[in-house]
Amino acid sequence: MMVLVQNKDGTLLSSCHPARARILLKKGMAKVVATYPFTIKLTYRVKNPVFLPTRVILDDGKTCGLGVVQENRTHNLVLCKAEMKTRGEEISDNLKDRRTCRAQRRNRRNKKRGREDEIKIRYRKKKQEYPASIRADVEAKINAVKRLMKMYPVTEIVLEPVKLDIVKVINPTVKGKDYQRGLSYGIEADSRNRKRRLAILKRDGYRCLYCGSPVTGENAHVHHFVQRKHGGSKRYDIQGTLCEKCHTSVITGELALAFDLEKYPSVRAAGRAMHGRYLLERELKKLGVPVAIRYGYETKELRERFGLPKSHGDDAVVLGCNPEKKLVDRSTVYKIKLHARHGGRKLFDANPGVAAYRGQADRQPHVDRSHMAVDDHDHETNRRNRSYRRHVRNKYYKKLKAEGKFNYELLPGKTRLNEIFTVNRAILLTESGPVLVKNQRIRKWRYPYPWPERGRVIERYDLVKTQKGDIGIVTSLMSDCTVRVDFVRKREGYKTNFSFYKPEMLTIIQKGSSQTWVIQ
């Protein structure tokens, strides 16, 4: 493991061996400025430093491999390896859940939204080139490269973009004109769904795949062997023909069809990476460092030449090496964990203060519970019940206002939130004890002191060390000023992999952000 070095003015220098770092510290020629990763800063200024070619390599994909290689006169020196699993698929699923929830809510309210010719893809409507899931993946990769450029004097960036033949992955036997024609070639239908259905029936010979009984286009059932909620799609190869009896048995659970998922790999991650590869290349070129493009067919040959095992970090490293020189591995190995920007926020939650007041109003003893029910299929009853609910809540609000207990800051449209319902933002260590700081949106009127420096507070996603030397990530700040820490490595002899600590028992070794870099 090499030691990071900074010049006296804070600029980056080439990394040094730990033995040399100990000599510099012992002679007083350097001082420690960070311990995670270990970084020293010289007490004198090096004029005209010489930098060896240092490359940052990015092996693109759902699980990205990152590496830093320094090319010396006689060998390739591996300085860093890292692996990062992107959140694009999770973000895409969350957006689908939110869209479904909003559509159901509109149906309950019986409001018709949208027009027939309206664009349905929301990111195009906002004049954005790429959807949120792809942009989030690219931003995470760019941020990881930027962090490496703050640690090492990088002279070049090497990118291995994702280039796959998705048609070949789904159907290995495809060739020739079948690439353009597909399964539904030559079938005439009124809609795309109808055309897809007829193509599947034709492929299966209009027979049930389980019992073999003949079916027709009217009574046949097309079954999704991989449901949409489990990652399925409208691909032809994961759909098949069943008769009505067999399909009913499958739905009720009386019949279980054996389906080998390994033979039908998901191509969502590959498609997302290929969709965003040009955006990634464009953003990397904006960093001001030359960008070189390498391809996957070179990876296997170089990995076998250097005798490295198959891993995302090693795949990235070999692409930055000079094949004519030997490889020396003194790398710091990281595992990068990505966090949601709004980890404590719900997608569909209303104003929490208003929701609390409504719940209190609905629980009043004089309320008729039969008039509070909501029936999605009886709009006339819903209309009468809605009027009754509005009457009950307004009556309760008037009572609170008369008693002086109503909080006007909870009304919709207000920028302030009730402090009771906000997410805890940070814990400040003071001489009189720890102080819990609430959401920064309300700190100006709830918290009388200026916002402290980040180094003095414990926030979510901070990487901390306990008194026993265990390293973990702060995931929650409790109302009694205790901190929940999720440990990055499983502790022997403990049932859970998390624990609660008082803030003075923790030491911050890396401030929280959208990425946490954990040394393996």
TrEMBL record:
- Every copy of the C2H2-type domain together lies at 208-230
* Superkingdom in the source lineage: Bacteria
A Pfam family cross-referenced in the UniProt record is HNH
Q: Give TM regions.
A: none
The protein's matches in InterPro entries, at most eight in alphabetical order, are given as: HNH, HNH_nuc, RNA-guided_IscB-like, RRXRR_dom, Znf_C2H2_type
Official protein name in the record: C2H2-type domain-containing protein
Matching PROSITE patterns:
ZINC_FINGER_C2H2_1
Which molecular function GO terms apply here? endonuclease activity; nucleic acid binding; zinc ion binding
CDD domains linked to this entry: HNHc
Spell out the SMART domains in the cross-references.
Answer: HNHc (SM00507)
